[in-house]
Amino acid sequence: MPALPEKGKRMWSAQDVARDQVRRQASGLEVAAVAEKVAEAAVRERETAERLRGNGSFYAFEMDRERLAAIWLAKHTEWQRVRDLMTAVGWSVYEPERDAQGSVWAREREKRFAGALAAQDAFGARQGEGADELRAEVRLSVAPSRLVRAVAGRTGLRPSEVLAQLAERIVVGEDGTVSVPPFTPSW
Fold this sequence. Notes:
Layout lengths: L13 H13 L4 H22 L12 H25 L10 H30 L12 H14 L3 H10 L2 E2 L5 E2 L8
Antiparallel strand pairs: 1-2
Helix pairs in contact: 1-3, 1-4, 2-3, 5-6
């Protein structure tokens, strides 16, 4: 099962993003409209490349210049592929389900996405299993601290184990009072 991408890494490549967007946007477009999209993508690719070289500002995209440039390059390439396919096969309108290569890529993306969701669900389930467990750092005043250490010393337990056994035996009364019945800490 594929794992979720590590922090800082992306699940989708620039090609994945471009192919998905072009597939959805091209649906139902005629050849002339696809040709316009190729020209628009070429302009955007050139603009982002120039800005990447420092000849302009990205404003909101300032932090991810390389990614934006890579996506526009991939979009330009994908729009060209769709245009060339439509021209070669003689389609007047682009229908994504008839695009064999585009359909393969779409299925691969869906499979990776389903795998990532399953991995995320499994991670959440593992987190849920430990959700009932409580980890706490306790600071005790001098007198209770000495008592816990003394009990730990006599039983061979660590002070945290003595406190855990105390906590396991807590009883809450109907009136909200909290008590611990007498017990002998043990391994």
